[in-house]
Amino acid sequence: MNDRSVKILGIESSCDDTAAAVFSNYTMLSSVIAGQKVHEDYGGVVPELASRAHQQNIVPVVDVALQKAGIKKEELDAIAFTRGPGLMGSLLVGVSFAKALGMALNIPLIEINHMQAHVLAHFIETQGEPYNAPSFPFLCLTVSGGHTQIVLVKSHLEMEVLGQTMDDAAGEAFDKAAKIMGLPYPGGPLVDKYAQAGDTKAFSFPIPKAPELNFSFSGIKTSFLYLVRDGVKANPDFINVNRDNLCASFQHAIISILLDKLQQASQQTGIKGIAIAGGVSANTGLRKELNTLAIKRGWKIHIPKMAYCTDNAAMIAVTGYYKFLKKEFTSVDVVPTARYSL
Ligand code: KG4
Ligand code: ZN
Predict the structure, then answer these.
(1) Which residue minimizes the CA distance to atom 20 of ligand 1?
(2) Is the dihedral of CA 239, 242, 246, 248 positive or negative?
(3) Distance, CA 310 to ligand 1 centroid (Å)?
(4) Which domains can be identified in the chain, with CATH numbers?
(5) Tell me: the pLDDT tens digits for 205-230?
(6) How many angstroms separate the CA atoms of 79 and 108, rounded?
């Protein structure tokens, strides 16, 4: 076995997606995700329901990932799994499954930090497509349902958080705004969709005062809540009539906060290699405004493929590969951790 042919199974179960992927030869042989529709009506992920669904999905998802990769489980060299951060009950399913399979096959386990994996999604090659991985050091804005961070990425495994949210995450703000408008969970993709037909200047929101490179989204969320509440009081049809403008204005406000801090981070560090990652990096408005800003600032930007923005196991497997090269293996008494800093 040489380093290139190492076969790593990645397992992800930190929130509401059960995912498995097989990585070898710098490419993903398979990447399978089972989402959970059960949370749609609740406006957010219900932890108890999420763990039950993971328990049902984990075996078939791993089976399909191996089948699609065209390999037998006995051919695997290691198992990489999300140890945290995430929901404890959800993480326990993936961690326990990884341990059991690792012991049965007598192969090493590799624990993965989910936030590090979001960043390393930029190092997944796709056969037949040009490989455009960022060069070190670069800055990564990681924006998901649980986190919002600006990360200084020094190497594959060396990362430093320069700033982060002090309250809600950017994705959470999208989801809460959607819930206020009566849209199902996850609301981010729907806000994105409706925003495309709306006016970004129709409504304005207060600019949060978060120190240095940190973020705050709770004020803007509350302001959105009052705007909608007062609007509905005056006109019961307010949301229907204004849906697209509400989405466009709210989305633009979030993007402005994100890009403003990203500009500050680039100025402070002198780094012009800029990446985005995490579920919110799928947002078409963010992608567009980042492209425009990159031209103005002379940035080299890196935007992940849609499939690798939201939670997936391909990013877990590729991170596992870099840890495998350094022999950063994990003992079988490992336990999940709901909080896990980079
Ligand atoms: O990274 P991710 O899949 O899971 C976490 O680690 O949290 O991110 C999920 C978050 C959700 O809040 C979802 O609403 C948001 O990403 N999201 C989006 C879009 N697609 C997903 N937010 C805005 N626009 C999108 N297109
Ligand atoms: Zn995530």
Answers:
(1) 189
(2) positive
(3) 6
(4) 3-130+311-325 (3.30.420.40), 138-308 (3.30.420.40)
(5) 999 999 999 999 999 999 999 999 99
(6) 7
**Which residues neighbour 316 within 8 Å (Cβ) at sequence distance 6 or greater?**
10, 11, 12, 19, 21, 80, 81, 82, 112, 114, 117
Cβ(217) to ligand 1 under 6 A? no
Q: For ligand 1, atom 7, name the residue with the nearest CA.
A: 145
Determine the average pLDDT of the residues in 256-272.
Answer: 98
For the Cβ of 189 lying below 6 angstroms from any atom of ligand 1, the answer is yes
In three-state secondary structure terms, 194 is helix
Residue 208 is given by DSSP the state P
The model's pTM? 0.95
Q: Is residue 2 predicted with pLDDT exceeding 70?
A: no
pLDDT of 276-311, one tens digit each? 999 999 999 999 999 999 999 999 999 999 999 999
Ligand 1 centroid–CA 267 distance in Å is 27
Joined together, the tokens standing for residue 241 give 């009539």
Distance 235 CA to ligand 1 centre (A): 31
